[in-house]
Amino acid sequence: MGTMRKVQRHILSLDGPVVTASGFNDEIAIVTHASHSLPSNDQMLEYRVLNIRYGTQTLRGHLPLTPGSSLMWFGFSEEGRLSSYDSKGVLRVFTEQFGGSWLPLFSASKEKKSEENYWVVGLNASKLICVVCSSPETFRQVTPKPVLTLLDLTFPVASSDLGAETLENEFILVNMHISQMEVVAAAGQDTTALDDQAFSLEAALDRCILRLIAACCNADKLARATELVKLLSMQKSVKGAIKLATALKLPNLPERFNSILEERLLNESKPVIAQPAVTFNGNEPAAVHLAADSKPEASDTANALVNKPSTTTTATTTTQSCKTPEPVTPLSAPKLSAPIFIKKKSQQGPKISKEAPMADKKMEEVKDRGDQKEVVEKTPPGVRPTNPFAKSASNREKTSLLDSIKKMKNEHTSKT
User: Is residue 202 part of a domain?
Assistant: First the structure.
């Protein structure tokens, strides 16, 4: 397999003799024999669709053929739909509906004359492109240049009891096109360019349904008419059906159509109810509850601040409550390395050495007011706080002078 410019990319071995192959963009469809022919001489064929760019297989399955026929044409439509045409004149197109199925879109037995055969060239969304060959020839002639013929795609529907086979065929065909657009939208592809076409198809479908409703009313098929009204996509189309039933003076039918319209309006007017958040104990949302449980206690916060290095002056952590609960992401407390404390030698005697540890201790105040927690370090590091219970320096000097006088008197008394 290769690209359009004959760059060879992949070489594969298939599990059966190759019948034909066809390409579209980055995909190639291959038909092979799945097994030997049946005793009735019917062929057992298998198809697969490969994506050359991504090296994947997108589709694979058995290729349906009309009993007693052989494959005459196989390829893609202009929109990229996989299609096949057999010798019995049945054209089939692959669709994603029902898990992947083949829909018969054309039957030459209802279109061609007895002395004609169709050589298929291609197809689009609504037309089959072919060359009309004179019987018994089944292949087109090289010369003169053949003339292309466009034929309408029609489902081989059963005979209609309404005499409206054309309307029923149009109804099925438009429904198929809308379903294909829904599949494209469900796949996540960009459908902006198809918006106008989708609206036109919905309007055409409503017009077709209204004509079918009129045919049902004229044929006294009121239950079928009621079912068709439920398939209308626009409100003005339902109102048109009500006017039609009123004009035909059919009993109880306008009331049925009106009840269908009221029910549709009621369903469209219902507000979308938002799902409530899951709560614990009926108090607060789960996210807020979990965040509250993960908050550190005041003692843990204070311990973290005690071990904070001396370069930081003040640490404050504040959590504010909101009126409306919102998910709160808990923040883990930073890991702080404890500073190395070096015990200094006492230089002022025993009294000063006892007061030094008290001066080195940091004073902290923890304020817990409802939903706010504030930790304030009152004394900045590096500054020795004043002790209200310690004696002043002047009193300390006076006390030491009196002690020395008493000591001298005691020594003099002991000598005498």
Answer: yes
User: Does residue 95 belong to any structural domain of this protein?
Assistant: no
Residue whose pair of structure tokens reads 């929109």 in the numeric block: 79
Q: How many residues make up the chain in this entry?
A: 416
The candidate with the shortest Cα–Cα distance to 259, out of 274, 245, 280, 273, is 245
pLDDT at 401: 64
The tens digit of pLDDT for each residue in 104-156 reads 989 888 777 777 888 999 998 888 999 988 877 777 777 788 889 899 888 88
Tokens of 183: 């599949």
Give the count of domains, the chain. Answer: 1
Q: What is the pLDDT of residues 201-248, one digit of tens each?
A: 889 999 999 999 999 888 888 899 999 999 998 888 999 999 988 998
Residue 342 clears pLDDT 80, i.e. is over it: no
DSSP 131: E
Host H or E run for residue 175: helix 165-186
CB 74 within 8 A of CB 83: yes
Q: Could you tell me which of 260, 269, 253 has the C-alpha nearest to residue 233? A: 260
What is the rounded CA–CA span in Å between residue 22 and residue 76?
Answer: 7
- Per the prediction, the chain carries an average pLDDT of 73
- Per DSSP, which regions of 257-403 are E strands? 279-280, 284-285, 364-369, 372-377
**Tokens 């009123």 identify what position?**
246
Residue 400 domain flag: no
Phi, psi of 185 (to 5 degrees): -65, -40
Cα 110-116-118 angle, rounded to 5 deg:
80
Amino acid at 136: P
